[in-house]
Structure formats: structure tokens, C-alpha cells
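User: Show me a protein chain along with its predicted structure.
Assistant: Here is one chain, sequence first, then C-alpha cells.
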Amino acid sequence: MKPRRSRWMARAAGAAAALAGACALGATPIPNGNWSFVFTDAKGHPDRPIRVYTYRPRSCDTKCPIQFVIAGVHRDASHYRDDWSLLADRYRLLIVAPEFSQKDWPGAAEYNLGGVEGQPDRDKWTYAAIEHLFDEVRDGQKGYAIFGHSAGGQFVQRMFLLMPDSRATLAMAANPGWYLMPEWRKDKAADSYPYSLAGSPVGEAALREALQKRFVLLLGEKDTDPEAKNLNESAGAKRQGEGRLDRGENFFKAATAAAQELGVKFGWELEEAPDTAHNAAAMSKFAAEAVYGKK
């Protein structure tokens, strides 16, 4: 009986391994070149279809990292995909750029701020759609990188702090207009959520985790106009700084101080693009060179 049992156990182990391997493969394989498809997020909002723009270099196999790209206020995901195409060829990246339409994700509340407020189900947060989409397109990768500029940079920065348990192994936020500051204590926060973690769905434990992961803040040295178009001019945002550069530097200083206070290893980086203002294409190139060009 023992040999028979051993054979059964071996077959069961083999089936489990096959199942685990299958689970690492997405339902929608991405072909070479430019492509797009419509993703239905069954775990999140199945009634809100997401058009997804992709680019796969011919040299990319299953070892190529998945690089999500999050568009700015105009939600022009196809343009952002195109900005990253040559970079994808150079650094062997698989580009995935989801388009969150104004119709289905109206305003900053549903996009930049992720539809978090008043929504206890994390799978319904806009940020969670990235996790669900990753499961749809991955072909062996265990994690992914994510980049966003302007409103997309704010999307990435907030997602990183509110969902530190995501499978993003690298997050890059370029020129956000204002921030979710890394202060979770109501008595010490200058402003509560959505200007800081105070009053947010997460607290100290999530911040500890986020501070130790790899996050790269990218700022244009000339993105300094305090009256720039689409810049949040609320009192809470102005307390973070005058322009985007000022606010970004203050945010990074606050995160550095939080890591020291909490006694955790700080995994973040700050990169400033010389002679660059609020330019998505320029910041995309700068981000790729700063992160992937160092290898």
C-alpha cells in the first residue's frame, strides 16, 4: 500500500505544481508591438470597462518586467504608452497602460484619490484594478513596476501608501500636484485625509511597510509654477508647498523623518530632472534612465 500511496501523493503534488504554474499565467497574453484590449474587472467594477494599451518588444519573453504606466489628468493612456515604447525596446519592458475614462472614473476623487473614501471594499478601489489587471496579463512575473506622471503620479504615490501589500516591487511617481503625507497621527498631522494618512483607511503598520519598499519620486527642477494649470490650490495643498517641486521635496523630507522615527530601513529615492518642467514625455525618459539605466 505504501508505494501506491506514494505514487498518489506524487501525482497530487504534480497537479498542485501545475495549478500553481497556471495561476501565474494571465488570461490575456500580450502580443508583440502596439496593441489594446478591453479589460473587465470582475473583482472590482465589472460595469466599468477599462481600455488597456500595451507594447511588447519583440525581444521580450516571460522574463521581461511588466511596467504599468498611469496617465495624467487627460487620461491619455495611449500617448503614455507611446512615450514608453522606445524605452521598452531599450530596457526590455512590457508596457501596460490602462485608461480610466472620465465617464467611469469621474474627477480626482475616483482617479487620483482612487475612489477610496466611503468604500470599505478594497477590491473596489481604483488602485486595486492594477492588481487585478496584473493577474490578467502576466505571463510568469511575480511582481510589476508602476510609473505615473502628474495626476498619474499622484495615483501611484497614493496607491503605494494605501496598498503597500500590492505586488508592485517598484513605484515611480513623477511630478504629483499634491500628496498623501506620511503622517498617520491625527494630533500631529497638519491636515487629515486625503492630505495625510490621518483618518485614512490605513495607519502606522501600512506606513512602515511602504517606507521599506522601493519608491522613486521624480521631480522636474523647473516644475515650480505656484499657479500652474490643474495645480491644487486648496489650503491643505498649499501647506505642503507652493509649487510641485517644493511640495515634492517637502513630502520626501517628511517620509525620511517618518522612517527615522519608526526605526525602519528607508527604501525610497529622490531624483530631480535638470532643466525639466511639467512634461510627461521628458519625465518618462528621465524615469527609465534613472531606474533601468543604472543596471
